[in-house]
TrEMBL record, chain A:
This is Dynein axonemal intermediate chain 4. SUPFAM superfamilies: WD40 repeat-like (SSF50978). It comes from Cirrhinus molitorella (mud carp). InterPro entries: Dynein_IC, WD40/YVTN_repeat-like_dom_sf, WD40_repeat_dom_sf, WD40_rpt. PROSITE patterns: WD_REPEATS_2 (PS50082), WD_REPEATS_REGION (PS50294). The keyword Cytoplasm applies. It is found in: Cytoplasm, Cytoskeleton, Flagellum axoneme; Dynein axonemal particle. Transmembrane segments: none annotated. WD repeats lie at residues 636-668. SMART domains: WD40 (SM00320). GO terms for biological process: cilium movement.
TrEMBL record, chain B:
Residues 30-118 form the Roadblock/LAMTOR2 domain. This is Roadblock/LAMTOR2 domain-containing protein. InterPro entries: Roadblock/LAMTOR2_dom (IPR004942). Belongs to the GAMAD family. Coiled coil: none annotated. SMART domains: Robl_LC7.
Length: 792, 122
């Protein structure tokens, strides 16, 4: 292919102006016909190789200057050999200069020219230095052709051949450029760098030293020595090329065996609290860890180290279970702990279960569990909205009972919430109840028989609202408990009065069974049952008298005593309840014999703590003064039976209630010797009465067999609410709750039932005026009637 | 007459000892409380777990106990870690899980876990 193109190209080209080299070459342009002909085939053989480099050549080089000489053969055909190379002194030439020579070199080397040919042709071209590379290239090329040519014309022909070949190469390069380019892309091109006369691989610029300088002599000497050395280099034994061979030792394999390296994954999670713990425990536990770590690391299964481990842990902390070693966050000690554990399991269990923390947690858990059950009741008690448990499935029965009650929702009734009871209290008679002054959820209940027979050891239970199934504190007493009161100053002190006359003060903070103090050592102790106890706070005290709280008791031996707690309990008599039956009997009693009427109850005036009422077994109510213990201020006589309870109204300062076993309840006014109102419903003994702390016109009554709530706004003849208890069971004590509208009823079976007052007519104020109105109206009606009403 | 009899009783009253509690071991009290909790209506089971997550006292069968102990131990660890990460001086005291059928209450401490499972519907 290229063959044809060569020919075509050749004929088309014309010789243009000639450059220097071409002049030179044209000078020897004596073309031998045979030469030209031989050139072609030889050249065509090279065409491929030259064409391969065509792409490198600059396009500017493609413009070939034309020859001025033309050659014609016999037949007149223009067989002017075209110059092989027409260099165009363009601007881009130097740029390509770097690349071109390399490729030109490769051009040469792709042919299998011996280096000798290269050298010889190189030597022949001395003139055109700028084109020396081209010259050498073409020379090497043409040297092949020169083989077929006679030696004479070798040099000469080389030039025209050079030019012609170059020209052809030029033209060919253009045409073939595109075709070959793609083929060349994948080729591996070897580049060899060799030095030429103008191109060196190593170039160290010479340092010039001035002749006048100080070093000039030394430099000159060195230069001379160097030139001598260069001269001597040839054939010098010092500079002989030699090769050496080293021995390759035979390789030998060697094996080493080691224990298998076990890989263990270890991870530690660094958390904020972990770091905090380590930091805190670092100083505290450093000794402990040293001791126990030693014990651990020494011999883990060794029993001696076991004991060694336990000892520091035991001595350091008596309370908590594991010593602080267990809380050290080092993983190594943890790992060791794991192995230690199996041996320590037994003491572990005991330690945990006996720790105080565990007991507290147990108690709390019990309350939590119970709270889940009693939550609606407690919510009702505390007057909170009762939210139904969404997951709780109410049984049919409950729903029915609920709807029944809601039907009767118009009339007031007592809603039963729950009952404080447990197996301990089964069968015991509730004799007194009192709220704690400080903690309104704490209720103290005393169990003891009222009657002389069936006396058994008494019991005081402190119940918490949060746990209706088991009391928080249980105090066993020797004899039946008849009176209870919590102190207001020291809210943990509970005074207990017993059937045998003993008064004991318990500290309810601890579960200790022994009271703080006991009155059994006192010489003046009561010889009869203490029926009522009260802590009274005297705000105003005369000079010489102590301020503060005092314990006042009334007993069946007719004395009202004040107890002082110094080293033991000592009492001072406030009043002796003299029996006034001196006057009743016909016979004149010896006034020296003082018979005392057994006192059953007393109540201090809410506003004036000097005045108090005392009710006796003989039916009289005495008004006494604290500071005057000889005589009563006044005596109210209306009851015919023992007066079980007197109670001042918390709202009206002049009004008080009294109840007695003669089936009646009297409402008195302080200044009137006869009762204003009397309440009776049925012929049943009245055990207990209490004013409601919320409303002035409401009071509760506990009779044999039923619980009554009277509301004087509604009616003074009939109780507003009557709640019947089960047969055989008598409610014995009544207690209103100071904060909510509930009432507690203790009965002879040992239950303390909590009721909620529902649908009582609510009043904004305490209805004091209403009460007074009622009283006033009653009095006025009495006056109009001319008779006092109220004697049973 | 009434008075005389009462005096007689009061002489003897001091002889009787009411102190029996200090000798009573703490274990008995703890056992009583645990029994009471278990006896509350609706309580399904009670488990006491030690610090490593091994149950040491239980009222349920073995497999259930092990399951509850393991799972709740992990959850408690996680909950405690959460609480303490927020404030290292704080600590978890109680954990309550309410589900459709039961309520699981866990009282936590460094040394033990007290787990009670209750069915509050009953």
């Amino acid at each position: 292919m290229s063959h044809t193109t060569v020919k075509q190209k050749r004929t088309a080209l014309k010789v243009a102006r000639s450059s220097k080299t071409l002049n030179v070459s044209s000078g020897v342009f004596r073309v031998n016909q045979s030469m030209t002909k031989t050139i072609n085939p030889s050249f065509s053989g090279k065409s491929f190789s030259s064409g391969s480099d065509s792409k490198v050549l600059d396009k500017s080089l493609a413009q070939t200057p034309k020859h001025t000489v033309q050659v014609f053969d016999e037949h007149g055909q223009d067989i002017t050999p075209h110059p092989l190379y027409n260099p165009d002194p363009g601007v881009l030439q130097p740029k390509q200069g770097k690349i071109f020579p390399a490729h030109e070199m490769s051009w040469t080397t792709m042919t299998d020219f011996p280096s000798v040919a290269f050298q010889t042709t190189n030597a022949s071209f001395t003139g055109p230095f700028t084109r020396s590379f081209f010259g050498s290239a073409s020379a090497s090329r043409t040297s092949q052709t020169a083989e077929s040519v006679t030696d004479e014309t070798k040099d000469f022909i080389a030039k025209p051949d050079l030019s012609s070949s170059l020209t052809d190469v030029q033209t060919r390069r253009e045409k073939v450029k595109e075709q070959v380019r793609e083929d060349i892309m994948d080729r591996v091109v070897d580049c060899y760098l060799t030095e030429t006369e103008t191109i060196w691989l190593l170039d160290i610029p010479a340092v010039s030293v001035s002749v006048d300088s100080e070093d000039a002599e030394a430099v000159k000497e060195r230069n001379n020595a160097y030139t001598e050395l260069c001269k001597n280099r040839q054939g010098n034994d010092k500079y002989v090329e030699r090769s050496m061979q080293t021995f390759n030792d035979a390789p030998k394999t060697k094996e080493v065996q080691s224990d298998s390296i076990t890989m263990v994954d270890k991870a530690v999670m660094s958390t904020t609290w972990d770091m905090y713990d380590s930091f805190c425990n670092k100083s505290d536990v450093s000794e402990n860890t040293v001791v126990s770590a030693e014990g651990n690391k020494a011999t883990v299964p060794d029993s001696s180290s076991m004991s060694h481990l336990l000892n520091p842990s035991g001595t350091d902390q008596s309370m908590s279970v594991f010593s602080t070693t267990s809380t050290v966050s080092g993983s190594s000690t943890h790992l060791e702990k794991m192995t230690v554990l199996p041996v320590e399991e037994e003491p572990d269990l005991e330690l945990i279960l006996q720790s105080d923390k565990f007991k507290q947690d147990l108690a709390m858990m019990e309350r939590v569990v119970l709270a889940n059950i009693f939550q609606p009741k407690l919510a009702a008690y505390r007057q909170l909205p009762v939210i139904e448990d969404p997951d709780c499935v109410q049984t049919q029965m409950e729903e029915e009972s609920w709807t029944e009650q809601t039907k009767n929702s118009l009339s007031p009734f007592l809603e039963h919430l729950w009952a404080f009871k447990c197996e301990l209290t089964m069968g015991r008679n509730v004799s007194s109840m009192t709220w704690n002054k400080k903690n309104p959820d704490l209720l103290a209940v005393g169990y003891g028989q009222h009657e002389f027979k069936d006396q058994k050891p008494g019991l005081v239970c402190c119940w918490s609202l949060k746990n209706p199934t088991w009391p928080d504190r249980i105090f066993h007493c020797e004899s039946g408990v008849t009176a209870l009161d919590f102190s207001s100053c020291n809210a943990n002190q509970l005074a207990v009065g017993m059937y045998d006359g003993t008064i004991a003060i318990y500290n309810v903070q601890t579960a200790e069974q022994t009271p703080i103090t006991d009155s059994s050592d006192c010489a003046n102790m009561h010889t009869c049952p203490v029926w009522q106890l009260r802590w009274v706070d005297h705000d105003t005290g005369l000079a010489g008298e102590e301020k503060g709280e005092m314990l006042i008791s009334v007993s069946g031996d007719g004395r009202i005593s004040k107890w002082i707690h110094y080293k033991g309990l000592e009492c001072v008599d406030l009043m002796k309840l003299k029996s006034p039956n001196v006057t009743i009997n016909r016979q004149q009693w010896n006034p020296k014999i003082l018979s005392l009427a057994p006192g059953l109850c007393f109540d201090f005036h809410p506003n004036d703590s000097k005045i108090y009422l005392a009710g006796t077994e003989e039916g009289q109510i005495h008004k006494c003064s604290y500071s005057y213990n000889e005589q009563f201020l006044e005596t109210y006589e209306a009851h015919t039976g023992p007066v079980y309870k007197v109670a001042w109204s918390p709202f009206c300062p002049d009004v008080f209630l009294s109840c007695s076993s003669d089936w009646t309840i009297y409402l008195w006014r302080q200044d009137l010797p006869k009762p204003v109102l009397g309440f009776s419903s049925g012929q049943k003994v009245v055990f207990d009465i209490m004013w409601s702390p919320h409303c002035a016109t409401i009071f509760g009554v506990v009779r044999e067999g039923n619980v009554e709530i009277w509301d004087l706004r509604v009616s003074s003849l009939d109780p507003t609410i009557v709640s019947l208890t089960s047969t055989g069971v008598n409610p014995t004590v009544l207690l209103f709750t100071p904060e909510t509208d509930c009432v507690l009823v203790g009965d002879s079976e040992g239950h303390v039932t909590v009721y909620k007052l529902k649908n009582l007519p609510a009043g904004g104020s305490t209805q004091v005026e209403t009460l007074e109105d009622v009283i006033w109206s009653t009095l006025s009606s009495q006056h109009t009637l001319g008779k006092t009403d109220g004697s049973a | 007459m009434l008075i005389v009899l009462q005096l007689y009783f009061s002489f003897h009253s001091n002889d009787r000892q009411t102190e029996e509690a200090p000798v009573l071991s703490d274990m008995a009290e703890v056992e009583d409380t645990l029994k009471r909790i278990q006896g509350i209506n609706g309580v399904i089971g009670t488990i006491v777990v030690n610090a490593e997550g091994i149950p040491i006292k239980t009222t349920l069968d073995n497999s259930t106990t092990v399951q509850y102990a393991g799972l709740l131990h992990q959850l408690t660890m996680k909950a405690r870690s959460t609480v303490r990460d927020i404030d290292p001086q704080n600590d978890l005291t109680f954990l309550r899980i309410r589900s459709k059928k039961h309520e699981i209450m866990v009282s936590t401490d460094k040394e033990y876990l007290l787990i009670v499972i209750q069915n509050p519907a009953e």
